[in-house]
Structure formats: C-alpha cells, structure tokens
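Schema walk-through. Below, the input block comes first and the output block second. Nothing else is stored per chain. Lengths vary across the set, and this one has 233 residues.
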Amino acid sequence: MAALGTNHRFCLILFGPPGSGKGTQAAILREKHALAHISTGDMLRERLESGDGLGKTVAEIMHSGGLVPDELVNRLVEERIEKPDAQGGFILDGYPRTVAQAALLDGLLQAKQIRAVVIHLKVDYTVIIARLSGRRQCPSCGAVQHFVRNEPTLDLCGKCGSKMVVRDDDRPEVIVQRLKAYDQQTQPVLEYLRGAGYRILEVQGQLRKPEVIASEIGAEIDGEFGVATVRTA
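--- output ---
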C-alpha cells in the first residue's frame, strides 16, 4: 500500500485508554503506511538524554515531580513533525492531552495544510482491567508477557527465565484510577476536536485481532473514501 503522504501530509491523532492496544496499532499503521510514530513520552525521554537546553529544562521539571507545561510539549511536537521521517505523514500518540494542546495542534495543522483524522480505540473497561492485571514484566530483561492463570510455572520470563512481576501501575485498583483520569482528560479534547471539524473515527478495539483493527482503520484513511472523510486544514 502506498504511503498516505505521497501527495499530501496526513496526521493520525490516536486516542485510546491504557491497555486498548494503542501502541500495537501505532506500530502496525506506521509500518503499513510509512508514517512516523510520534509519542510524547518518547520525545521527552529523548530530550532528557540529549542534554541540550530544552532537555535540561525538561529534566528539571520532571525530576522535581512537576508536569511538563503545554507550551513546552507543543514546542517539542512542532519540532518533531518537521523531521525527515514525518514528511510523508505521522501518528500522534499521547498528544494532544489537553484542550490547550488541541487548540495549538489545530492551528499548527492548518498553517502547514496537514490533513488529519482522529482515531479513537474503544475497549470495555472490564476487558482492559483483566488485560492489564494479567500482564507481567521481567525485572531482568524488561520483557512483557500476559498470563490468564496464576500458576507459578507460568510466571517465568520466556526470554531469560527470571521471575515475572506485576508492575505497580498494572494493579487493578491503580488501573481503575488510570481509566478515570483518562476519561476526565480525554473527553474534553475529543469534544474540542469534534467541534473544530475533525472526524472522530470510533473503532472497536476488543475481541479482534490487531491486524483486523488496523485494516479497518486503513480502509477509512486510505483511498478515495478516506480522503473524503478526513478534515483538510
């Protein structure tokens, strides 16, 4: 399949609660459509490692336990989408998180004449809680595995044999709080984007293979029908 950005730059704004398979979809869509995957978390980590002026500012904020302000995140995104790998198109993962970020993004896309569509992965929260609470991570090599049963023999890392552990943020009570925070944070952003004229594509993300979900998204954004349904800034 040809890259979406062959003639025009595309932006996929990817939303989904923790455990919805957002990262998996971003990886598949990136590969199939030659899109850059832009994650705000990755950008912040890269900037921390760079040690440049902006990186030092980010480090000071994060090490003090503060939230990186919108204007700084906006600046990072604006710089990132100008890199060579994003010239054909890109996926925004974890951005925008606030209405202020959404407003800045809207202006940025309009100024650069980048067409965009919002993909919202919908997964029942009971499924997410079961999925995440069954996830284990290896403290030695970092591998992640999912277990349905709590048999001791299944709690060993398939790569290095170490005892797998439950991450703090994968405990059921923590997952519930993360989902509540997601709802409070995300709904205003989705409503802002909808009001600004963007099409919100709701995609069912449970009980289906990731490749099937990715194909459904691809069918919406590729070809003549896809071009007709995305917002042209």
